[in-house]
């Protein structure tokens, strides 16, 4: 899969070579494949705390966008009240208000103990899903 254009305007998204098999895809729940290019979601807009990131298989990115846009909730993608300060939306970069319900992405199915959470404003979910679905191009058959 190739991007129609890079995600230069948002540092929270990146195509990157996955160097772990201990984390799972936030969309399908299967283990990441070490050495393959995957979609990395990062908490670049959080102000404080440590870096957190979630992985998505390249073949699952479009499905992730469809899940988020449709409003379906899974074990790793669901609406929840934010209980933390200094959290930024991975779509728009603005602060995710404490005590309000927003979309949470988490690594609930990972084998690792450290729990990682990324947040998207409830109103930004459609823009996020359209951005990742609309900028992907499938490879041409030869």
Structure overview:
The chain is an alpha+beta fold and 142 residues long. Helices cover 14% and strands 25% of the residues. It has helices spanning 61-70, 125-134, and strands spanning 2-3, 13-17, 37-42, 53-57, 77-81, 101-106, 117-120, 136-137. The strands form three sheets. It has a three-stranded antiparallel sheet with strand order 2-3-4, with no helix packed on it. It is globular and about 40 Å long. It starts with a strand and ends in a 5-residue tail after the last strand. Residues 138-142 have low confidence and may be disordered.
Number of strands: 8
What kind of sheet is the major sheet?
3 strands, antiparallel
Query: What would you call the shape?
Result: globular
Overall SS class: alpha+beta
Strand order of the largest sheet: 2-3-4
Please tell me the overall pLDDT. Answer: 84
Residue share in helix: 10-25%
Quaternary state of the chains: single chain
Brief sketch in words of this structure:
By secondary structure, the chain is of the alpha+beta class. Helices cover 14% and strands 25% of the residues. The longest helix is centred in the middle third of the chain and has 10 residues, at 61-70.
List the helices and strands and how they pair.
Blueprint lengths: L1 E2 L9 E5 L19 E6 L10 E5 L3 H10 L6 E5 L19 E6 L10 E4 L4 H10 L1 E2 L5
Antiparallel strand pairs: 1-8, 2-3, 3-4, 5-6, 6-7
Give keywords.
alpha+beta; three-stranded antiparallel beta sheet; globular
